[in-house]
Amino acid sequence: MEEEKLLTGEESLQLITGMINKAKNSFHDSGTSMLLWGSCVSVAAMVTYLQLEFNFSIGFNIWLIILFAVIPQVFITMRENRRRKVVGYDGYAINVVWSTYAFTICGLIIYESIVPSAFQHIIQNEGWQLTKHYLDQSRPDEVLEPFTLSITSIYILIYAFPTIIMGRIRNYRPMITGAIITYVLFVASCFTTTKYDMIFSCIAAIACWLIPGLILRKKYLKQKANV
Amino acid sequence: MFKDLDPILHSQLRLATMSLLISVKEAEFTFIKEQTNATAGNLSVQIQKLKDAGYIEVIKEFKDNYPNTTCKITPKGVRAFEDYVKSLQAYLHITKK
User: B77 CA to chain A: closest CA distance, Å?
Assistant: First the structure.
């Protein structure tokens, strides 16, 4: 392509259209990550179903393959980043969505590992426990440790999901900060009762939306006044 | 006839580079070179001119122990490109009449 060739109007428009089309056609997803996770999760779920249905055990937790799948995923991501010469706007947005999804899944794993023991700790401090009592008294009472849902914690985790996606795509720091604060509040809420979860929920809403919203509103009114 | 058109953009290679960069978040130097079929030396000069005009941001870093240059369009560049296209459309509209 020549350095300083002057173009006619038609040539300029043709050049712009051609280059935009070239850029659009340069994104190709290998699909490797989708194949990896699609096969891992479907195999783990099916093996779990078969174990429950036919009452047998394979001797280890099949869901551990998910942890092992993280290792090749890291290498796939590194290799794709090395090979990638161009980052499109949609590609960046898709990466943000998937990384937030992965972060949310990690949050749920944390939730699953903290909530049952935290619940037991809370009720022990209150001086009571859940028991299984046989009405015919054929067997002694058994202490129950059921998985108790802490639904507000999940709501708090979900609050952060769109907030961090929007913040990262628009590069809007108040929303990114709000989402990070919300992730911290989510972990804290796994240890507390619903009463305190509501306080965390309130702080999360303020950090995620109210403060960033006020900042945006201020900018909007300023721009409106200048027009 | 083209006196209203931005002289920085109204050159083949610089316009091609800006058209590529307007469509993507960021692109490596090698990608722009491949898509425009320009020589490395020529492209470097034109990228420097766009950078000096504040139309693009040039990030130099190392990738796998090799120097790597990445370019991304700036908000000023986006505005200049939009104005250029508007002027071009207006010109074409007038000539068709």
Answer: 15
